[in-house]
Automatic annotation (TrEMBL):
Residues 11-485 form the Amine oxidase domain. This is Phytoene desaturase. It holds the Pfam family Amino_oxidase. InterPro entries: Amino_oxidase, Carotenoid/retinoid_OxRdtase, FAD/NAD-bd_sf. The gene is crtI.
């Protein structure tokens, strides 16, 4: 049984290995020159940058994925727990380290507000319980109809999940200080949402951060990509790079071949990890599309991003591995992303700085640092060299002001990556970096389907599908798809 996988992102690599293990003859075709998709690698002047995902969270999901092969992540890459997990720079010049030691985090929240330690204990207990419900009843299952979503188990858990309340409201009831509220909400930006449009059950992110920990795979997230490629090769997967799909040929209700500039790949099954709307609108004939252009136009897209990959010729000692710079009016920042009437390059953005060289000796030459400076942007807005330079100066001015030191004069290599680059390199719809936001109406059953509604042997995996954004979610998406396909074709 032949399977062609379109796209070698985390979704494509993981589903390829799973299907090959299940007996399929698997070929992965990839538009770009290397595997990883948005987790590509950029190298320049001795500096190495993971271009996309930089947080290794939810280690239990990775464990569960590799266990399907009788293996462990540690068979491929050692893991180190980061301490501090991340550093937060508040606008009032306060700097707080979120620790791997939970006791220190209780002390930190007590310094934010009276009773903060006890409030955090209660919040974490709620988050841990919700995480358990989510993992056991929500994430690893397929949704084909409303009856799947509202079955007895989910209805029982749903009362505790409280899906109709947004995260902002949920958090405001539990913490009074601006600092505490921001620390427990900041990560929603990495899931492509804002506290106002994200359901409250995503407070599980605080349990993931503080209880489960923030980890780093030796060699970076690129080591995780390499592990999936190696795993696939162990089961006979063929990888073909620099070979973009140009069409999926459909005959009747079946995809028969995937066409590329180098020829056509005949197949029995197609699994797409490429951008979902691009595939539907550009690779499939109109009568074979599950969703028309109007469907995508109405969706709430996750942000695009501005990223500066900087190699600096010294160590910026004030920075930890992960650093969050929070501006006082972060609500305005979310409005410039999610309110179409206010969509613009933000004036005072909150932003994130990743310094992998703080942990990883392969990321930069000795005595230097790699900096990954990221700020979210609204998808679809204008993107010009002049706007990029102006925004770069704005971010660097703010970071230098907060740190009290000049960094720009130490930059020896620089690459800027933003909206149009996401479109050009990844065929990303309107330049989104992440896909669809996690609003209630874009959760579980209401995300685009894993299986095409028009083509019986066409499936999708990755961030657009259930369960959503992030490397762990993408691994789960692939496990769902692979289970569906192996069960179907085994029968």
């Amino acid at each position: 049984m032949r399977a062609v996988i379109v796209g070698a992102g985390f979704g494509g690599l993981s589903v390829a290995a799973l299907l090959a293990k299940g007996g399929f003859d698997v070929t992965v075709i990839e538009k770009n020159e290397q595997p990883g998709g948005r987790a590509s690698v950029h190298r320049d002047g001795g500096f190495t940058f993971d271009m996309g995902p930089s947080w290794y969270l939810m280690p239990d999901v990775y464990d569960r994925f590799f266990a399907e092969f009788g293996k462990s992540p540690k068979d491929y890459f050692p893991l180190a727990r980061l301490d501090p997990s991340y550093r937060v720079f508040f606008a009032d010049e306060r700097v707080a380290d979120v620790s791997a030691d939970l006791g220190k985090n209780y002390d930190l929240f007590e310094s934010f507000e009276p009773g903060g330690a006890e409030k955090l204990r209660g919040y974490l207990a709620e988050a841990e319980e919700t995480y358990g419900i989510t993992m056991s009843d929500l994430l690893y299952r397929e949704y084909r109809s409303i009856f799947d979503f509202f079955d007895r188990r989910l209805l029982a858990g749903g009362r505790k999940l409280n899906p109709l309340e947004n995260l902002e409201s949920f958090v405001k009831k539990r913490f009074s200080s601006d600092e505490a509220r921001k620390v427990v909400q900041y990560s929603i930006g990495f899931l492509g949402g804002s506290p106002r449009n994200t359901p409250s059950f995503y407070h599980i992110m605080t349990h993931i951060d503080l209880n489960m920990g923030v980890w780093y795979p030796e060699g970076g997230m690129r080591a995780v990509v390499e592990s999936l490629v190696t795993l696939g090769r162990e089961f006979g997967v063929e990888y073909r790079y620099n070979e973009p799909a140009t069409a999926i040929d459909v005959e009747g209700e079946l995809a028969r071949r995937v066409v590329t500039p180098l020829g056509a790949h005949e197949t029995d099954v197609v699994v797409v990890n490429a951008d979902y709307p691009f595939t539907e609108l550009s690779l499939l004939p109109e009568g074979s599309r599950s969703y028309p252009a109007s469907y995508w136009a109405k969706k709430v897209l996750a942000p695009s991003t501005f990223v500066a990959y900087l190699g600096v010729d010294r160590v910026v000692s004030a920075l930890a591995h992960h650093n969050i710079f929070l501006e006082p009016d972060w609500e305005e920042g979310f409005e410039t992303i999610f309110d179409p009437k206010k969509a613009a390059w933000p004036e005072s953005p909150s932003f994130y700085v990743n310094v992998p060289s703080r942990t990883d000796t392969t990321a930069a030459p000795k005595g230097t640092d790699t900096l990954f400076v990221l700020a979210p942007l609204a998808p679809g807005i204008e993107d010009t060299p002049e706007l990029r330079e102006r925004f770069y100066d704005r971010l660097m001015n703010r970071m230098e002001e907060i740190l009290g030191e000049n960094i720009r004069d130490s930059v020896v290599t620089r690459r800027i990556f933003a909206l149009s680059d996401f479109t050009d390199r990844y065929n990303a719809y309107r330049g989104t970096a992440l896909g669809l936001s996690h609003t209630l109406r874009q959760t579980a059953l209401w995300r685009p389907s894993h299986q095409s509604k028009r083509v019986r042997n066409l499936y999708y995996t990755g961030q657009y599908t259930h369960p959503g954004i992030g490397v762990p979610m993408t691994l789960i998406s692939s496990q769902i798809v692979a289970r569906e396909l192996t069960d179907r074709y085994r029968r």
